């Protein structure tokens, strides 16, 4: 397997590190536009191979897409991160141009690749990658809900005093401070509904803290997060290259599913060797569906901004 990660910044390098350590690829290409950055980080990571004992060969490239040729999976992390006080949506002006150019270059050199989009605003960047490449919809996957669901489990685990690994909990909808929908009614601790163990007030707090999870970290760190985002990107790569058929919330093109079409939005999907293989219907109730529709309206208005750029 050959995997490329575009963007050797905080998220891209962390994602690549996770991919290498888990030996998800024989060859891993790290590409960045900044002279020397990807080569340097690739060498640094390769020098951990003797210590950690992995076999993945990591190659760095300053914007030379010929090195990425024939990739099976490409992860796009290139673009500006937000600063404290900003929304992800404010990044659209710069990041749309970056993601469009990267997607076109990837298509030229790896026409059969499955593309995972991480750059923000992720739902709109995923829609852009889909429309700019014209690739089959199952090969374009936006990573946001996978991370948001991990953060939801973290928040739940703090209140329940339990292991996040014992929780099943998903966040659907957009990857925005106000557009994501943590489905607390459907979350379970092993098979018991978490709502049995939490007061109404705790439930509201968990949902609110999950929704601003990225903003909270951005305020603390001064730029946005990378450990969990990088690990979430690598988890999707693993499910593809090992054909694990794991269920993750990902941003995918909807054609009537969850009551929406002509939009990419976060829903539970099976991830395997063909990309996202199936959308799973979690049966939203009327309140959850209303939130999902509101989220779709907000993402659609960001997608409309693309036409003005
Ligand atoms: N979807 C998510 O869940 C999620 C999570 C975390 C971060 N993000 C987003 O991921 C992006 C990257 O975040 P980061 O913290 O790694 O930022 P960063 O600044 O550390 O890294 C971004 C890298 O992209 C590179 N780059 C810029 N233009 C490029 C181009 N045309 N081609 C190749 N490389 C290019 C830069 O040189 C830089 O090294 C941001 O947009 C951020 O908002 C999304
Ligand atoms: O918060 C951000 O801007 C980065 C990312 O989308 C995240 O959720 O960590």
From TrEMBL:
Zinc is among the record's keywords: no
Active site: 175
Domain Lactate/malate dehydrogenase C-terminal: 146-300
GO biological process: lactate metabolic process; tricarboxylic acid cycle
CDD domains: LDH-like_MDH (cd01339)
Entry annotated with the keyword NAD: yes
EC number: 1.1.1.37
Source superkingdom: Bacteria
Residue positions binding substrate: 82, 88, 120, 151
Keywords: NAD, Oxidoreductase, Tricarboxylic acid cycle
Reactions that this protein is recorded to catalyse: (S)-malate + NAD(+) = oxaloacetate + NADH + H(+)
Stretches assigned to the Lactate/malate dehydrogenase N-terminal domain: 1-142
Pfam family, one: Ldh_1_N
Binding site for NAD(+): 7-12, 32, 95, 118-120
InterPro entries in UniProt: L-lactate/malate_DH, Lactate/malate_DH_C, Lactate/malate_DH_N, Lactate_DH/Glyco_Ohase_4_C, Malate_DH_type3, NAD(P)-bd_dom_sf
Family membership: Belongs to the LDH/MDH superfamily. MDH type 3 family.
Function: Catalyzes the reversible oxidation of malate to oxaloacetate.
Name of the protein in its database record: Malate dehydrogenase
Native organism: Niastella koreensis (strain DSM 17620 / KACC 11465 / NBRC 106392 / GR20-10)
């Amino acid at each position: 397997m050959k995997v490329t990660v575009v963007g050797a910044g905080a998220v891209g390098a962390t994602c690549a590190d996770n991919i290498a350590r888990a030996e998800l690829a024989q060859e891993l290409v790290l590409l960045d536009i900044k002279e020397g950055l990807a080569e340097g980080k690739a060498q640094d990571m390769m020098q951990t191979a003797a210590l950690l004992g992995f076999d993945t060969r990591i190659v760095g490239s300053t914007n030379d897409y010929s090195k990425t040729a024939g990739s099976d999976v490409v992860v796009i992390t290139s673009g500006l991160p937000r600063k404290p006080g900003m929304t992800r949506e404010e990044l659209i002006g710069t990041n749309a141009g970056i993601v469009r150019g990267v997607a076109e270059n990837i298509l030229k050199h790896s026409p059969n690749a499955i593309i995972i989009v991480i750059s923000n605003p992720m739902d709109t960047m995923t829609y852009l990658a889909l429309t700019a490449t014209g690739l089959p919809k199952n090969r374009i996957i936006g990573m946001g809900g996978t991370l948001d669901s991990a953060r939801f489990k973290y928040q739940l685990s703090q209140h329940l005093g339990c292991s996040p690994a014992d929780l099943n909990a998903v966040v659907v909808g957009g990857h925005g401070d106000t557009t994501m929908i943590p489905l607390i009614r459907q979350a379970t601790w092993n098979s018991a509904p978490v709502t049995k163990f939490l007061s109404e007030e705790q439930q509201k707090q968990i949902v609110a803290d999950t929704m601003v999870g990225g903003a909270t970290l951005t305020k603390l760190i001064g730029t946005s997060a990378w450990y969990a985002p990088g690990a979430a990107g690598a988890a999707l790569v693993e499910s593809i290259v090992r054909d694990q058929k794991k269920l993750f919330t990902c941003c995918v093109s909807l054609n009537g599913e969850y009551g929406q079409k002509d939009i990419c939005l976060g829903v539970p999907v099976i991830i395997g060797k063909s990309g996202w293989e199936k959308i799973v219907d979690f049966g939203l109730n009327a309140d959850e569906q209303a939130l999902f529709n509101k989220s779709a309206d907000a993402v659609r208005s960001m997608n409309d901004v693309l036409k003005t750029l």
